[in-house]
Amino acid sequence: MTSCLPKFTIKLLLILCFFLSSSHAFTTRDYSDALEKSILFFEGQRSGKLPSNQRLSWRGDSALSDGSGYHVDLVGGYYDAGDNVKFGLPMAFTTTLFAWSIIEFGSSMHNQLENAKAAVRWGADYLLKAATATPATLYAQVGDPNIDHRCWERPEDMDTPRNVYKVTSQNPGSDVAAETAAALAAASIVFKDSDPHYSTKLLHTAMEVFDFADRHRGSYSDSLNSVVCPFYCSYSGYQDELLWGASWLHTASENSSYLAYIQSNGHTLGADNDDYSFSWDDKRPGTKVLLAKGFLEKSTQEFQLYKAHSDSYICSLIPGMPNFQAQYTPGGLLYKQSESNLQYVTSSSFLLLTYAKYLRSNGGVAACGVSTITADKIIETAKRQVDYILGDNPAKMSYMVGFGQRYPQHVHHRGSSVPSVHAHPGRVSCSDGFQYLYSRLPNPNILVGAILGGPDSRDNFADDRNNYQQSEPATYINAPFVGAVAFFSDESTTV
């Protein structure tokens, strides 16, 4: 007998059934373990001189001369994913989201708070260098990805050119500059009490970088083209970063000029557009959630629009709501695209929890047409995504390396897949490293806490080092997840 129900209705019912039946019993201790590991992952991505308290001991010092050929100090920062390039746009976004995780959920991090702050400082220190090394210049990248990707070698052995790329008034990059401003401003909030001098320096630099981004408008994709595209091409343009950067400066400084900027420029920078994808490229949903807080807490009428758009974003993710438009796998995972899908899952989960926090604090609900969604319902939706990543999924596999009994063993990551410099002191050259890329053996070094790209639209996952779309980690996947698992690790959290 064939069903007379439309295929979309059947699919929606299946998703609803999964949501109602999913009940994996992760404890606060499990979430605390995931929190510790999600922060630890960043130590595996460090570039530069490693500190004495480095915990992922298989890593070593790397790229200690970055910038020297250009008479600037660009040592430090993070490698974005499984390669050895320092891309400024995703690194800045990572720092912004990590800082936001601490701002919202730092009180739930307990003994991991200092490790989290150290991770933010590692990124912020590098961004400070990149923004202040030369007047009216922002250094946006170190390393040519086209050359780097022809090699498979540990960062400790790198012999590929460490070319430096910058944006200037003549060759602008408002997207990378405004995101850098957002990162420095958000980090300034993190250190406002514990290190006020550092916080002031971060905020002052953020203001200067934002002014540079706004005065010299243009996309860094146009200025730097082949070395940033297609890797981190600014597909959404630079307008969303300008509004995002101004919003963080408004939040960090409480300077009325940034409120005026948002009021005057918001409509031309994306405030009127609903968007349902929050990532290193498109900041619109995050900006609206951040500004909605101003309306909820202070009844700032200028921000009422952002509350409405935030509601629309939240409603789009929840099955059964009038403007539901998200895609979920049969197993209940939010699905956006085949490459590195979990970046959208972690960023969406973080926004759901952050918005739920804002609503809870102010007795609000999200309006979905004639329906409303409570903060508790929003939290439930986020929890299912977090739990899926940690192992409550059809494969019964954790997509966080080192968490749980079963997790991926063949991670698309050079440093993790090649024997450590401590175990194999001899140099592994550019071409010699490919034997480890193609090896069927598990990675010799465990990149603890790394969240990988994740399964496909049918919940299938290939634990294959060559399948980078599914098996590569990235800093911007982990950064928002830090805040999400911190929320659930708190004993006082109720759903």
SSE blueprint:
Layout: H1 7-21, H2 28-44, E1 86-87, H3 88-105, H4 113-132, E2 137-142, H5 145-148, E3 164-168, H6 174-190, H7 196-215, H8 220-224, H9 239-253, H10 256-265, H11 284-298, H12 304-316, E4 327-328, E5 334-335, H13 342-362, E6 366-368, E7 371-373, H14 375-390, H15 414-417, H16 434-437, H17 468-471, H18 475-489
Antiparallel strand pairs: 1-2, 2-3, 4-5, 6-7
Helix pairs in contact: 2-18, 3-4, 3-6, 3-18, 4-6, 6-7, 6-9, 7-9, 9-10, 9-11, 11-12, 11-13, 13-14, 13-18
Give a structural overview.
It is a single chain. The chain is mainly alpha-helical. The chain has a single domain, classed as Glycosyltransferase (Alpha/alpha barrel). About 45% of the residues lie in helices and about 5% in strands. It contains 18 helices and seven strands. A three-stranded antiparallel beta sheet has the order 1-2-3. The protein has a two-stranded antiparallel ribbon with strand order 4-5. A hairpin with a 2-residue loop joins strand 6 and strand 7. The longest helix is centred in the C-terminal third of the chain and has 21 residues. The protein is globular, with a radius of gyration of 22 Å. It starts with 6 loop residues before the first helix and ends in a 6-residue tail after the last helix. The N terminus is likely disordered. It catalyses: Endohydrolysis of (1->4)-beta-D-glucosidic linkages in cellulose, lichenin and cereal beta-D-glucans. It comes from Coffea arabica. It holds the Pfam family Glyco_hydro_9.
